[in-house]
Write a structure and sequence with these properties.
Layout (H helix, E strand, L loop, with lengths): L3 E5 L5 H11 L4 E8 L2 E9 L15 E2 L4 H14 L9 H4 L13 H5 L18 H9 L17 H14 L3 H13 L4 E2 L41 H4 L2 H5 L7 E3 L1 H12 L3 E2 L2 E2 L3 H5 L6 E5 L4 E5 L4 E3 L2 E5 L5 E5 L4 E7 L10 H16 L2
Antiparallel strand pairs: 1-3, 2-3, 2-14, 4-6, 5-6, 7-8, 9-10, 11-12, 12-13, 13-14
Helix pairs in contact: 1-12, 2-6, 5-6
């Protein structure tokens, strides 16, 4: 069995075993964290940070978590809503006047968070994603593809710019700055949107699936983990310095399982984690208010959307291209995060689900 580093409660032995199973099956590296009641019961990692398997995965190794980033951007909006600075029922144009063009005057903030705004397509180049003013101006000029609020279609790249510009108009700060100053900073969480150079040495570059190269850009209908690539993003783009430095708040967040689980455990624990309160219980409940239930036009599968999160029974969260995932269970006060740089073909990838199920094994013992 693969060597696993870190610490875990003995009741949760199934979790490091599940991570070891991914490495034994050929994965290069990864990390898993489980937080219950805002505290870690699992914080483990293993494998290597490089494709040649020469650099061990360390405690502070970080990776691009792709669309798991959306949960961080959504949390920023929820914090602002809880403070009364952002009204989810307000027209987006109240905060971003230019957005009201081209038939979008009735688009509400909640439509942006729930993928129902009708703006799922990125029609620019990858390079244009790195220019925030240009990217947001492009979206402000677009016509919606459907009547806002009437249908859902996963906004794989655009959601981050849409929500992020509202955050910027309200606060005068980028999403990355707001997240660092108001969320990750107070919590001591090692997660970044817009990664600065001093962290470069800690980054484990994304590794494409077996038999693929860095031009891999697969998009699998019915699987949210493959959706970024439908907009022309390749593995080599995500591994570039330009991507790392840019703020693409739907897809360019860097962190590890510990940081993701810590931040999102706020929602599992009524707005407080490790003695830091950032949301009220009512503010947390907003995340799982159902906004849409039906077939998602982009994903090609039935979806339930809350405010910024996918809803799955009594749990919610989201996954990223390549396999990283976060799951939040408020009823159990648990958050589970799996972070990896090793992609698998989406149709064959059950790693995140397997790890979540292993966490529930430990939870049963903890609650006895």
């Amino acid at each position: 069995m693969a060597d696993i580093q870190g610490s875990y409660d003995d009741l949760f032995t199934a979790v490091p075993n599940a991570l070891a199973a991914t490495l034994d099956a050929g994965d290069v590296g990864g990390s898993v964290a489980v937080f219950v009641d805002g505290e870690p019961v699992v914080d483990v990692w293993g494998g290597f940070a490089d494709a040649d398997r020469t650099i061990p995965w360390e405690r502070d190794t970080i990776v691009n978590v792709w669309s798991v980033t959306k949960t961080m951007t959504a949390l920023c909006a929820l914090v602002l809503a809880d403070r009364g600075a952002l009204d989810p029922d307000a027209p987006v144009a109240r905060y971003w006047p230019e957005f009201g063009a081209a038939g979008k005057e009735k688009v509400l903030v909640r439509h942006l968070l729930a993928h129902t705004a009708g703006l799922p397509d990125w029609d620019g180049t990858v390079e244009e994603l790195y220019d925030w003013p240009s990217a947001t101006a492009r979206l402000a000029a677009r016509e919606p593809r459907w009547e806002p609020g009437s249908a859902a279609g996963y906004h794989s790249l655009t959601q981050g710019f849409l929500v992020g510009e509202v955050v910027r108009r309200i606060t005068g700060r980028s999403v990355g700055e707001f997240l660092a100053e108001e969320v990750t900073g107070p919590l001591g969480a090692d997660f970044h949107i817009g990664l600065s150079p001093e962290h470069d040495h800690r980054v484990a570059l994304t590794i494409p699936p077996a038999g693929r190269d860095e031009d891999y850009a697969a998009s699998a209908p019915g699987n949210p983990a493959g959706s970024e690539a439908g907009n022309g993003v390749r593995v080599r783009d995500g591994n570039s310095l330009a991507w790392r430095r840019a703020q693409i708040p739907a897809a360019s967040g860097f962190g590890n399982a510990r940081s993701v689980a810590l931040v999102q455990s706020l929602l599992a624990c009524g707005g407080e984690a490790r003695g830091v309160r950032l949301l009220s219980p009512a503010g947390c409940d907003r995340a799982r208010e159902e906004q849409f239930d039906g077939d998602d036009r982009v994903l090609g599968m039935p979806m339930r959307w809350g405010l910024g999160y996918g809803l799955f029974g009594g749990t919610y969260g989201w996954g990223g291209w390549g396999g990283s995932l976060v799951m939040i269970d408020p009823d159990s006060r648990m958050a589970v995060a799996y972070v990896t740089h090793q992609m698998r073909e989406p149709a064959d990838d059950t790693r995140g689900l397997d790890i979540v199920m292993s966490a529930y094994e430990g939870l049963q013992g903890l609650r006895v």
